[in-house]
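> forwarded from #structure-qc
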């Protein structure tokens, strides 16, 4: 673009406000009229879309006004690229509504999407729901034919935008207000999707943004036999857990099945089968971190194992107990490259209250065995024993919920 074309473009975005003729200089000396300098004041709108009609005043001679406008335009684009406010929100939201799988401008699926061409878009899930149930929004702005100048000025004084946001565009009455700058609006929209969405068939899934908080929690306990404990050290323990993502302790929760005593009994039987038949299951504790993260199915756990095979073997059993399919892609192994320095077998000594004591072991090595399992429900005062070598197997017919209920104040 030539300099002349650039100046023509700027001139289209500004309108003349008033012409001021200055008859005196700062020292109050009069000028001859033909030598009197003329200053023009212009209204400038750097971006019609971003500023939504709000204008800014610049003044000076004709040539200086063009220079100022050029500088303002350049600063607007430079800062817009760095701060992100120049991103077209309407285009971004359209991309966001498709969970960034489908580019609405090029009309092409991004690499890694599940479909191969635009005709297959109906088969995809966006934010865990069908295409017709993805998010939508609407700007809250003065009407396009608004003529009340006071109302327009009050709107611009806010300094932020407000939108109506639908998490599911098929439900017209279920919307909320979201506010902030354009950058904040984008983040707030993403935050709103950090909960489980439900499609018309009742399935729950949200491409990674899933909350299992408050769902029934199962904890498995493992401990080192006293006979194996080294003198001067505590027993080595392991505690691993998962949640029942498909069941709810609060009956009639939408899109979740009710947790029943029969469910608890079957869960206890599976725990006994996998972790205490014929003998208590052994975990070899070590210094390698093995984790399993399948959040959509309530499986998020990690522990320190002797090697990765031990960790994988344990998580395979945990998935069987949870009634979920084990998938190796959810397993992650982290190994320190200098274990002896990071986790010494014999910990160093340190001073405590003036006395020399041995510091606590970090990731000690040893064998721990299954000995107990509990079910935690947020509505009850204490956990429900599922299976242990001491209390045996949970029996639905013997369960008395009054022992677990909160006493009314």
């Amino acid at each position: 673009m030539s300099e002349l074309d650039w100046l023509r473009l700027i001139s289209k975005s500004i309108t003349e406000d008033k012409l001021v003729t200055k008859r005196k200089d700062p020292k109050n000396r009069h000028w001859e009229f033909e030598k009197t300098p003329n200053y023009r004041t212009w209204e400038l709108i750097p971006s019609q879309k971003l500023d939504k009609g709000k204008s800014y005043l610049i003044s000076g001679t004709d040539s200086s006004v063009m220079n100022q406008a050029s500088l303002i335009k350049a600063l607007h684009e430079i800062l817009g690229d760095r701060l992100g406010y120049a991103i077209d929100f309407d285009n971004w939201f359209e991309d966001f509504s498709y969970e960034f799988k489908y580019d609405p401008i090029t009309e092409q699926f991004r690499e890694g999407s599940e479909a191969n061409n635009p005709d297959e878009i109906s088969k995809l899930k966006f934010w865990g729901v069908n295409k017709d149930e993805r998010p939508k929004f609407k700007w809250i702005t003065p009407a396009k034919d608004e003529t009340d100048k006071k109302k327009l000025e009050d709107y611009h004084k806010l300094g932020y935008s407000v939108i109506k946001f639908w998490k599911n565009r098929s439900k017209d009455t279920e919307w909320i207000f979201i506010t902030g700058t354009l950058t904040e609006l984008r983040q707030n929209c993403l935050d709103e999707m950090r909960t489980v969405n439900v499609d018309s068939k009742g399935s729950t899934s949200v491409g990674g943004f899933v909350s299992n908080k408050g769902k029934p929690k199962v904890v498995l306990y493992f401990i080192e036999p006293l006979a194996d404990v080294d003198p001067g050290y505590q027993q080595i323990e392991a505690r691993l857990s998962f949640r029942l993502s498909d069941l709810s302790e609060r009956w009639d929760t939408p899109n979740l099945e009710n947790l029943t005593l029969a469910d608890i009994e079957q869960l206890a039987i599976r725990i006994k089968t996998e972790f205490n038949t014929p003998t208590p299951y052994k975990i070899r504790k070590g210094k390698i971190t093995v984790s399993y993260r399948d959040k959509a199915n309530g499986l998020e756990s990690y522990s320190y194992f002797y090697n990765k095979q031990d960790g994988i073997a344990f998580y395979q059993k945990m998935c069987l107990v949870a009634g979920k399919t084990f998938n190796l892609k959810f397993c992650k192994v982290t190994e320190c490259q200098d274990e002896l320095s990071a986790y010494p077998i014999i910990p160093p000594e340190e001073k405590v209250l003036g006395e020399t004591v041995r510091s606590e072991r970090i990731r000690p090595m040893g064998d721990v065995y299954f000995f107990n399992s509990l079910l935690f429900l947020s509505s009850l005062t204490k956990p429900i024993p599922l299976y242990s070598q001491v209390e045996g197997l949970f029996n639905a017919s013997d369960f008395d919920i009054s022992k677990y209920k909160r006493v009314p104040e």
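QC bot note: Residues 62-83 form the longest helix (22 residues). Confidence is low (pLDDT under 50) at residues 196-209.
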